[in-house]
Specification:
The chain has 116 residues and is mainly β. The chain has no helices and ten strands. The strands form three sheets. Strands 4-10-9-6-7 form a five-stranded mixed beta sheet, with no helix packed on it. The termini are far apart. 14% of the residues are buried.
């Protein structure tokens, strides 16, 4: 540790800070990364990484190209980075699909393609 260019063997301090003006609200967030692989073959594992900033119920829904709900999963997850995996079976034909992730801090979606 050095102070004003001079070395000091050890130091302890308390730093006080104060907000100037109106305090900003705490902004919560959840992020959803793009699925991999995309496009994916039917029967292969598609994985999405996501991050939440607080313990939360995380709901994943998969819709087909005309908006029909095909899958609905709700998980309880702790704060941090997680992975959601999905294996399209014979029920899923070739086409575009949408994964929607909903947490108590917002909703995000990603489109993905399944090939036969």
């Amino acid at each position: 540790v050095s102070i004003n260019g001079k070395n000091t063997p050890a130091i302890s301090a308390t730093i006080l800070s104060r907000s100037i003006g109106t305090p900003l609200p705490y902004v919560r967030f959840a992020t959803l990364e793009y699925g991999y692989p995309n496009p994916a073959q039917r029967g292969s594992v598609i994985k999405w990484a996501y991050r939440i900033d607080k313990e939360s119920a995380v709901r994943f829904r998969i819709y087909n190209g005309i908006g029909k709900l095909l899958r609905d999963d709700t998980l309880r997850k702790d704060k941090g980075v997680h992975q959601y995996s999905f294996v399209p079976d014979l029920e899923y034909s070739s086409g575009m699909y949408t994964l929607v992730m909903e947490t108590n801090s917002g909703t995000q979606q990603q489109r993905f393609v399944i090939l036969n």
